[in-house]
Amino acid sequence: MFATVASWIATSIEATGIIAIVLGAVVSISHFLRSILAGQSFVEAYPSFRSNLGRSILLGLELLVAADIVGTVVVDPTFVNLGVLSIIVAIRIALSFALEVEISGHWPWQQSASTRDPPSRR
Fold first, then answer.
1. What is the DSSP string of 5-73?
2. Would the pLDDT of 74 be above 90?
């Protein structure tokens, strides 16, 4: 019974991740097209489109990792499945870091220029 419920939860989280990516892509594209139709140039509208799309992909990836963890650890925790899970999680984490760098322009542990405190004056 517990394994069935956990499997259902993992599938639900996985579906939510897929929906987040698809809806995020649709919303990002619609905002991009609306900006273009409102007279904004492609060069002006593209960075916003790219960051919005990247954020939706990041959210979806995080949900998919959570689903993989629930599905593997709770439902069928064999050494082979845990090895496959670790590879999948490592790949998705690498994708997440790459997307974060693309969106923000810096590593997640670095402060951006806009969030740094100005130097104190004495």
1. HHHHHHHHHHHHHHHHHHHHHHHHHHHHHHHHHTT--HHHHHHHHHHHHHHHHHHHHHHHHHHHHIIII
2. no
